Automatic annotation (TrEMBL):
GO molecular function, one term: diaminopimelate decarboxylase activity
Presence of keyword Lyase: yes
Protein name (database record): Diaminopimelate decarboxylase
Gene Ontology BP terms: lysine biosynthetic process via diaminopimelate
Amino acid sequence: MKGIFPVDKFMEIETPFYFYDTSLLSKTLEEINREAGRHDNFRVHYAVKANANPKILNVIRHYGLGADCVSGGEIKAALRSGFPHDRIVFAGVGKSDWEIALGIDNDIQCFNVESIPELEVIDEIARAKGKIANVAFRINPDVGAHTHANITTGLAENKFGIPMEEMEPVIRLAVNMKNVKFRGLHFHIGSQILDMGDFEALCNRINDLQQQLERHHIIVESLNVGGGLGIDYHEPDRAPVPDFKGYFNTYARFLKLRHHQTLHFELGRAVVGQCGSLITRVLYVKDGVSKKFLILDAGMTDLIRPALYQAYHKIENISSDGPMETYDVVGPICESSDVFAKAADLNCSRRGDFIAIRSAGAYGEIMASQYNCRKLPDGYVSEELNIDY
Ligand code: LLP
């Protein structure tokens, strides 16, 4: 065992694979329930897009979170894992007809609607089924977030949501439709946000919008502020459970919630990010012209975040206690961007050593691909390997 990793148990498993520490996941969920539970009207949904491994979904469902889905496949995964249908919300800029029908057939809690044409299709499909679908409008709040440009979503230039200026006419349109029921407003400004000031800015914007709607006697039952709370990729062991207290308190302090309103959150990364690592083995140590390459059996097909977003993930050799050496850590895929880290310091490494790529529980396994005809990585939870921390 080195750190949190049962290296002896890993010997029997084909690499690369994802390893999830379910005791950390449970601790994280307990903290979410404790901190959100201090506020009567806060409700937390899990953003299934971060990790839909059924073993992970099962644990999350057990702690009573709802599910935030962005496709029919995610709705099916949530239902299969036992999430109650009336705790499932469905978002996304491009919902297909069959996905909308699936949501209506299963009487999901709410559709987070992103355009007028989408609203019309939901109304039409609900009418054909003789049902009424709950809808909330995703409003683009034009609030920036201090995060990577590819994961910022709340700016006017992004494709997401309905512009603020169109909010009122769209609500009026919905109120006059027979087969949809207007329930609330939905926002999401981006992901991997560590600056609470960004969430505060969202609160201020929502306060203004609420005032504007109240002047026109429009009642909003629920507000959904999306997700976005970040994790510490640089020091995953420093505070493995994110600062949920600070996060929920920011909303409690700055958002002027009306007494009849519920406030919904859709957290993904902060729930599952730190509990997962990609476990891989060193295939070769290769001497380059001016550097050493550590060639792993995992590549960008298993964890695409470094290649796609230049994201940092801490890398550790969990088989070696040798002196530190500097390596470029790369995968076997035929792409120059298949690099996990440049000039990373690791314990002196040899062929066969186990390497852990940390903080990979969110947007890791679920974003894996079969490029180069590779096998998708499996995910194992600590319980399955009989590990008792
Ligand atoms: N709600 C909505 C409407 C979202 O679009 C997202 C994430 C979430 C909630 C959950 O956000 P979280 O709490 O996980 O930040 N693949 C990227 C992240 C994409 C996030 C997309 N939307 C990455 O690996 O960093």
